[in-house]
Amino acid sequence: MRRLLPCWLLLLFAWPVAARDYINIDEPGFRPYPLAVPDCKDLTGQNSGPQAALCTEVLRNDLEIAGMFKILDPRSYIADPRKEGLSGASINFADWSNVGAAGLVKVGIAKVGEDVKLEGHLFDVASGQDLVPKKPMTLSGPEKKLRHMVHALADAIVEYYTGTRGIFFTQIVFAKRTGNEAKSICLMDFDGANERCVVQNGAINLLPSWSYDGSGIYYSSYLHGGPHLYLLELASGKITSISRETGLNTGAAPSPDGKLVAATLSRDENSEIYLMNPDGSGKRRLTRDWGADTTPSWSPDGKRIAFVSDRAGSPQIYVMNADGGGVRRLTFQGNYNTTPSWSPRGDWILFTARDERRVFDIFKVNPDKGEIVRLTQDQGDNEQPCFSPDGSHVVFSSTRSGESKLYLMNADGTNQRLISRGKGEYSTPRFSPWFDNPR
Question: For residue 16, is pLDDT > 80?
Fold first, then answer.
């Protein structure tokens, strides 16, 4: 869902991005770019200390999550923060070069009444050049939007170095169990902040997925028997019944253009993949096999669907055309492969596999060549992966710390980190599309 940019983002995203050699995390031999991020500087002394601390925490965390930077340890910094300001003339770049920095981010914050103002600069340490000399990164807005403003700074920094925006204006939907048999459908920001539950009805609610434009959430619920499929409209809170056929109604997966929804139904006494309109009408069966066919995932061009089937004796990943034809088995290693998630770039399909030790881990397979890459190992059970909307990151659930929690990693399996912050068991996370104006 495309929204107008709020006024405090207009200055930032008006920057021209000049032609340059961009960082490419997918290149062989990639090494993270060394970046120094000193504390956000209080520009006024008017009680901006807490805001400056939050600015620093969020900015460093964002740039660490981005995956292409090596954020240098602040304890190694030798520059005197009392003497250095935000302008290049006030900075001793030799001090930053000596600690190994290639880039330097300088951010100042001022509290002005109920609002805060951020001013950011991005410097090349070797040359001392302000990389955006015509206009500093300047944003202002209500204090409650401080996290969003810092995300915008991080987004601009990532876009400068890579040519593409980061994941900082995305959200994650998931199912969560806390203390009893009920499961709620909940949301959080990409970094685990602002967690809140949007479906809490005392029943088991599971397998959430975003509508194609991010305006709603499909999920399955046992509230009235079921499981039945529902759609929650986030803006209004309205819940609509989408499919209440006999048996299973699960795993809703909207097509990239939003015109169709694939789902698993067992109305014919066997789990099959169906297509339907977004409101549940016009159901059409795609698979016709004695095995159970489940968990559809669309290719980004909308021409193919990955799914799970045990038609060969064990759950494996298959691919078919969007009309149900051209069925092809994709995985042959292992005897339990599930939960496919297609990359937005179309080059990989994530899946969960149980290995010879009966431990679940995350793999990815190239849908054309069949090449398989393992992404997790020796850290509990790791399941239910999903790509970010740019394909650069993967969110997944893991039991490595005991209860099932949510983790984030780069698409190559590096930079794994815990993002869920609350108590309870988290499962089946799904990234949203980008939001221009985060709720």
Answer: no
